[in-house]
Design goal:
Quinone Oxidoreductase, Chain A, domain 1; alpha/beta; 26% strand; 6-stranded parallel beta sheet; Rossmann fold; globular; 7-stranded mixed beta sheet; 2 domains
C-alpha cells in the first residue's frame, strides 16, 4: 500500500461503549489525514491489543471523543511525513505508543515527569490509534524500531513492555529481591523477564493455568493462584490484574518495607484495608500513571540487550473485535497482536 493509493483505509472504531459481547466496535473507512508539520503517517504492520483498549471499548475508560480508533502499540512504516520531521524518512520503521503529547512547559514536564502532565494526550483515546491500515502519530513521540525484526514481536513492547518496565521500577525492587507479580498477561510476562535478568526471585500469582505454565517456562520460582500466598515474603510486588480485591492480598504478602505498584489505568474498587495487616511496618502502595519517553527509550534498549522474548497471539486486523473478546475472557496467552489481513 502507498499513501497515494490508500484513499479509504479500513479501521475499527468504538461506536457504542459497552460490554464486549454487545459489539462496541464497528468497521469504518476514513480518508487518511495529511500529516501536520511534525507528524508521521504510518502504514500499520502490527498493533498490539492492550487491556486499556478493552477498557475503552467497554466504557470503563470514558471515551474522550466519539468514534475513536483504539490501539496504541503501533509498528509501521513511514509513508508520509510533515515538513518539520527530520528524525524519520520515508520507509523507516517507527513505533507509536500510548503517550502522544505533553505541553512541555508545566512543572511536571520541566521536572522530567511528563507522564503527569495535566495536558497530556494519548493514542487511541484522544486521537485515532492503530486498529487500522494507517495511523498518524507525532514524530516527537515516535520510537525508531529495527527494520529487520518481526513486527508482531515488536508491537507489545510499545505499551505492555514500557508500562511494565515503569511499574517494575515503581515497585522499588531491590537488587536480587523477591518479586511477586499478580496477573500474568502481556505486560507482566515482559516485566518478568526484566526482573529475572536483573537477578530477582520471581513468584507469579494468576488465575490462568496457561499463564502459570508460561511463568515457570520463563524462570519463575513459583506460580500459584491469584489469591494464594507466595512461598516467601515479598520485597516488591506489581499488580497487573485490574482487580481491586487483590490489593490487600498483595499488600499482606509483602515483607517489612515492601512496595506494591498497581500498573493499570483502570482498577475495580479496592476493599477496606486494615492498617496493621496491610500497611504497617512501612509497606508502600503506589500507582503507575502512563510513562515518560525516557522510560520508552530505556526499556527498548534494555529489551534489545537482554533479548526479551514476546509470547504473542496474532489476529488478522479484520478480527479485532474477537481479539478484544478473547482478552476479556482470558483466552489470550501473552499478548494479542493485530496484523494486516
Amino acid at each position: 500500500m502507498t499513501f497515494a493509493a490508500a484513499e479509504t483505509p479500513h479501521g475499527w472504531a468504538v461506536q457504542r461503549p459497552g460490554p464486549i459481547g454487545t459489539g462496541p466496535l464497528a468497521r469504518v473507512r476514513r480518508r487518511p489525514a495529511v500529516p501536520a508539520p511534525g507528524d508521521l503517517l504510518l502504514e500499520v504492520e502490527a498493533c498490539g491489543v492492550c487491556r486499556t483498549d478493552l477498557h475503552l471499548a467497554e466504557g470503563d475508560l470514558p471515551p474522550r471523543r466519539p468514534s475513536t480508533v483504539p490501539g496504541h502499540e503501533i509498528v509501521g512504516r513511514v509513508v508520509a511525513a510533515g515538513e518539520a520531521v527530520a528524525s524519520f524518512r520515508i520507509g523507516d520503521r517507527a513505533g507509536g505508543a500510548w503517550l502522544r503529547g505533553t505541553c512541555g512547559t508545566c512543572r511536571y514536564c520541566r521536572a522530567g515527569q511528563e507522564n503527569l502532565c495535566p495536558r497530556s494526550s494519548y493514542t487511541g483515546w484522544d486521537a485515532d490509534g492503530g486498529f487500522a491500515d494507517l495511523a498518524l502519530i507525532p514524530a516527537a513521540f515516535a520510537y525508531p524500531l529495527p527494520g529487520d525484526r518481526d513486527a508482531a514481536s515488536l508491537a507489545p513492547l510499545l505499551c505492555a513492555g514500557i508500562i511494565g518496565y515503569r511499574a517494575l521500577r515503581r515497585s522499588a525492587l531491590p537488587l536480587g529481591g523477591r518479586l511477586g507479580i499478580y496477573g500474568f498477561g502481556a505486560s507482566a510476562h515482559l516485566a518478568a523477564q526484566v526482573a529475572l535478568a536483573e537477578g530477582a526471585t520471581l513468584h507469579v500469582l494468576t488465575r490462568s493455568v496457561r499463564a502459570r505454565e508460561l511463568a515457570l517456562d520463563l524462570g519463575a520460582a513459583s506460580a500459584g493462584g491469584a489469591y494464594d500466598a507466595p512461598p516467601e515474603p515479598l520485597d516488591s510486588a506489581v499488580l497487573f490484574a485490574p482487580v481491586g480485591d487483590l490489593v490487600p492480598v498483595a499488600l499482606e504478602a509483602l515483607d517489612r518495607s515492601g512496595t506494591l505498584a498497581v500498573a493499570g489505568i483502570h482498577l475495580s474498587d479496592i476493599p477496606s484495608l486494615n492498617y496493621q495487616r496491610h500497611l504497617f511496618q512501612e509497606r508502600d502502595l503506589r500507582s503507575v500513571t502512563s510513562n515518560t519517553r525516557q522510560d520508552g527509550r530505556d526499556f527498548l534498549a534494555l529489551a534489545e540487550r537482554i533479548g526479551i522474548q514476546v509470547t504473542s497471539s496474532p489476529y488478522p486486523m479484520s478480527r479485532a473485535d474477537q481479539a478484544l473478546a478473547d482478552l476479556a475472557a482470558d483466552r489470550v496467552n501473552g499478548a494479542a497482536v493485530l496484523v494486516p489481513g
